[in-house]
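Readers outside the structure-tokenisation community will struggle with the description of the input data as it stands. For illustration, here is how one protein appears when written out as sequence plus structure tokens:
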Amino acid sequence: MTTELPEAEAIYRLMTWLSPSYPVGAFSYSHGLEYAVEAGFVHDAHSTIEWLEDVMRHGGARNDGVLLVCTHHAVSQGNWPGLRETVQLAAAHAPSAELALETGAQGAAFIRATRDAWPCDALERLALIWPGPYAYPVAVGTAAAGHGIAIDRALAAYLQAFAANLVSAAVRLVPLGQSDGQRIVAGLSPRILEMAADLRDASLDDVGTATLMSDFCSMRHETQYTRLFRS
């Protein structure tokens, strides 16, 4: 069993792994937001907040949180059949081709970078269990558990990074000012912490989303004429 890292070391690694500078290409994905702006569903700070709150509470962010938790629990307990089940479900559950690309490409890039700079036995075990694709939350959850980072810290950091990336996309797309963007990030903070507390004991039975419009926008984005983002 991996020894839990001291808080300062855990925070350092999470800040590094989930930083915009970590080479996973997070800046190139909008999770369907680009089409939502094109269609006029998102057009100002207020509609941006409403859209992101739904994605966080009921959509891809919540699902990613569940998958990260299940991955972390399986790795921490040495439950390799459970890890394989989680990896397979995560790979199959993306609701559109572009969202599958979004999570799979980031997951693969995260694993490559982390195996090179921050190796651990859990990532090697993951490669033996499943050849890929690897959903992004599975990759992060495996590394966090393999390095002894507590689930509470890993989950809250991942959800914050998810929200911050979409806010960054909204700043460029809507467009919003930097101040509006930071106010949105600050406003989402209590909800993210509530989500992290609610999901820390989630199971695979909790996988599921209820954001059909977000999924629809990711599908329409595939044929959008002018695009800045890959999803």
Residues 7-17+29-221 form a domain with the Urease accessory protein UreF fold (CATH 1.10.4190.10). The mean pLDDT is 96. The chain has one domain: 7-17+29-221. Residues 27 and 165 are 7 Å apart (CA to CA).
